[in-house]
């Protein structure tokens, strides 16, 4: 009998890269098509079932389904929904992954209204076709999109100023709040997972004068979207504690950085003494919001995937031992994805993608990564293969807490 029910049916989650941004000089991109997840949805979801994962972040491509004037074509979701239902995997629907419809712009007066109507229509469509409980991410990584689309000019709307970044993130926050309310108008019990990068920024050793700017970047700017959604900042945008709901922290090695005045910051070397243990970063977010938490994306690269998972789990359990309310760790992505800039495969998924003569991308599981997943599933008293009905019992968080108390993992700043 479950004593302390988690939010999800399994502690480990996964997901699929689903960006639909306008990218620099390449126009509209669709990462679901580039990774052939649309073509191999049944194989992808069957794989998650077979490794004991019953939750996956999945995208609805707003630019591709919104036909304007309140008309929507959700037919592209049919193979995904069929596959997840067959494999009994619960989706966390990502409604806006950096992309918006052609002819629209976040700074247009109509943006929030269009997004709100789309959220309502999307929720109506998927809740009628997928078993609940239902969970959504209205807008993915508002903070990062503010940088990439508002200051660095990488993706739409191609802003190139700090002021543009500030304006974009608040516009996206307002739309996200409205989207939450629209979704809950369809399903009042729907859960919201709000995903942002978990970062730490330090001043260059030879520029102590940048210490305040670095601190603002990792304490104020990095939390701006969560603060607005929670109603702590810009109350006129409509945020409230129940809007924030679940806090999703995206954790990657490049999230610990040395500050640069112009352009993206420089990732710290894995053995840099200025690195802060992940445990402490998670604790900081927990103390700030006191909301249920998920590591909403994390992965290593190449042969380092196994060791990265081990490090993340040790740090996560150290944080649980110190009292944070952690409901899951999302191994993202389930299948490999291309580097946005170079197009080269990153080798960061549970499965690599191997091009075939006919153009198909064959799924090749990384055996060491999968076995490390299974090792942690066993340590947490979790299943390694889904049972007949993975939805019948949610995760008993007491199992996770007891494992954290038993293992007594210690935070470690050396991630080499």
Characteristics of this structure?
416 residues; 17 strands; B-glycosidase; 8-stranded parallel barrel; TIM Barrel; globular; alpha/beta; 3-stranded mixed sheet
Entry summary:
With 416 residues, this protein is of the alpha/beta class.
Question: Could you please describe the fold and organization of this structure?
Answer:
With 416 residues, the protein is an alpha/beta fold. It has one domain (12-407): Glycosidases (TIM Barrel). Helices cover 37% and strands 17% of the residues. The protein contains 14 helices and 17 strands. The chain has helices at residues 31-34, 41-50, 62-65, 78-87, 111-127, 142-150, 162-186, 211-221, 224-229, 241-244, 278-289, 305-321, 367-379, 397-407; strands spanning 12-15, 22-23, 27-28, 55-59, 66-68, 71-72, 90-94, 135-137, 191-197, 200-202, 246-251, 256-258, 266-267, 293-298, 326-331, 351-355, 361-365. The strands form 5 sheets. Strands 1-4-7-8-9-11-14-15 form an 8-stranded parallel beta barrel. Helix 12 crosses helix 14 (397-407). The radius of gyration is 20 Å and the shape is globular. The model has no long low-confidence stretch (mean pLDDT 96).
Topology:
Layout: E1 12-15, E2 22-23, E3 27-28, H1 31-34, H2 41-50, E4 55-59, H3 62-65, E5 66-68, E6 71-72, H4 78-87, E7 90-94, H5 111-127, E8 135-137, H6 142-150, H7 162-186, E9 191-197, E10 200-202, H8 211-221, H9 224-229, H10 241-244, E11 246-251, E12 256-258, E13 266-267, H11 278-289, E14 293-298, H12 305-321, E15 326-331, E16 351-355, E17 361-365, H13 367-379, H14 397-407
Parallel strand pairs: 1-4, 1-15, 4-7, 7-8, 8-9, 9-11, 10-12, 11-14, 14-15
Antiparallel strand pairs: 2-3, 5-6, 12-13, 16-17
Helix pairs in contact: 2-4, 5-7, 6-7, 11-12, 12-13, 12-14
């Amino acid at each position: 009998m479950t004593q302390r029910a988690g939010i999800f049916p399994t502690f480990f989650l996964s997901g699929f890269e689903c960006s639909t941004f306008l990218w620099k000089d390449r126009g509209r991109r669709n990462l679901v098509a580039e990774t052939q997840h649309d073509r191999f949805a049944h194989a992808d979801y069957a794989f998650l079932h077979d490794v004991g994962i019953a939750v996956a972040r999945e995208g609805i491509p707003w630019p591709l389904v919104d036909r304007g004037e309140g008309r929507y074509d959700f037919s592209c979701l049919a193979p995904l929904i069929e596959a997840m239902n067959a494999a009994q995997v619960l989706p966390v629907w990502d409604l806006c992954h950096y992309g918006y419809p052609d002819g629209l712009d976040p700074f247009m007066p109509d943006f929030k209204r269009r997004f709100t109507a789309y959220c309502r229509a999307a929720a109506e469509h998927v809740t009628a076709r997928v078993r609940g409980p239902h969970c959504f991410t209205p807008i993915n990584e508002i903070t990062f999109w503010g940088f990439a689309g508002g200051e660095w000019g990488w993706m739409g709307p191609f802003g190139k100023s700090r002021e543009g970044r500030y304006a974009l993130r608040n516009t996206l926050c307002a739309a996200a709040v409205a989207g939450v309310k629209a979704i809950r108008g369809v399903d009042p019990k729907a859960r919201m997972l709000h995903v942002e990068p978990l970062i730490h920024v330090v001043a260059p050793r030879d520029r102590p004068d940048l210490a305040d700017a670095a601190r603002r970047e990792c304490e104020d700017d990095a939390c701006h979207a969560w603060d607005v959604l929670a109603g702590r900042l810009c109350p006129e945008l409509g945020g409230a504690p129940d809007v924030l709901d679940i806090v999703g922290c995206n954790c990657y090695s490049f999230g610990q950085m040395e500050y640069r005045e112009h352009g993206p910051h420089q990732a710290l070397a894995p053995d840099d003494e200025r690195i802060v243990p992940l445990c402490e970063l998670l604790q900081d977010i927990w103390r700030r919001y006191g909301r249920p938490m998920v590591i909403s994306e994390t992965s290593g690269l190449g042969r380092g995937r196994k060791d990265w998972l081990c490090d993340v789990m040790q740090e996560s359990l150290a944080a649980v031992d110190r009292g944070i309310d952690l409901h899951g760790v999302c191994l993202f992505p389930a299948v490999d994805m291309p580097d946005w800039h170079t197009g080269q495969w990153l080798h960061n998924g549970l499965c690599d993608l191997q091009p075939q003569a006919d153009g198909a991308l064959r799924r090749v599981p990384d055996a060491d990564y999968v076995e490390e997943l299974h090792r942690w599933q066993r340590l947490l008293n979790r299943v390694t293969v889904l049972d007949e009905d993975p939805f019948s019992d949610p995760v008993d968080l007491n199992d996770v807490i007891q494992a954290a108390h038993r293992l007594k993992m210690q935070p470690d700043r050396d991630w080499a």
